Amino acid sequence: ELDLCSAASVDAFAGRLAAEHDALDVLVNDAGTAFWFGVRRPTLRVNFWGTARLTDALLPLLRASAAAGRSPRLVNVASKAGHLSQVDDELQRRFRAPDLTREGLDDLVRKFEADVAAGRNVQEGWGNSNYGLAQLAVTAYTKVLARAEGDAVRVSACGPGYFDVGTPSPRGPRSAEDSARSAVKLALVPDGAPTGEFWQDEQVAAE
């Protein structure tokens, strides 16, 4: 059992995994949810904060895999909804800055949350999508991690596209199997492949 909204659950999960395995070769983060704009916290808590919390907890095992020469892979499933154009030019500059740190990224996401709560998100240069901002943050987190890990861990993000999730909600034209192809491909990329990129339709996509 794993609840990404619970630090205790994430820590317990990571602890059990570390107790049973000396390393982790592949991590694919694919948890996600979406709520209407006024209900902002569940979307960000799962899609960004939860994904980052779990990844942080499992990074030591990924690094252990690298130390053992096993070329680990980390894949964050995001979305093309996380495009930079949803925010103004200054925020775009900050999100794409090559020296953006994890602390700086967390500050940006917290500012978005505060601005939404205060009803000033548009005036402050944000868009109107919690889901889109969460996916933008996941992609930025991917780039921050890739810079930090270098060649030791290949880190990628990808968008699965609009697919049939098998629920009464609107269904996309793709099958779940087709949409999973990018994530699977990135989990198996060879050494020397690009790292820190966002992929769509099995190729590096423009921001």
Distance between the termini: 35 Å
How many whole angstroms does the radius of gyration measure? 17 Å
Helix content: 40-55%
Number of strands: 5
Structural class: alpha/beta
Largest sheet: 5 strands, mixed
Give the overall shape, derived from the CA principal axes: globular
Share in β-strands: 5-15%
- Kindly state the mean pLDDT as a whole number? 89
Number of helices: 7
Low-confidence stretches are none
Brief overview:
It is built from 7 helices and 5 strands, in the order H-E-H-E-H-H-H-E-H-H-E-E. It is α/β, with parallel strands linked by helices and 207 residues long.
Structural description of this entry:
- 46% of the residues lie in helices and 10% in strands.
- The protein has seven helices and five strands.
- It has a five-stranded mixed sheet, sandwiched between helices.
- The chain starts with 6 loop residues before the first helix and ends with a strand.
- The model has no long low-confidence stretch (mean pLDDT 89).
Please describe the structure with a list of short key phrases separated by commas or semicolons.
single chain, five-stranded mixed β-sheet, globular
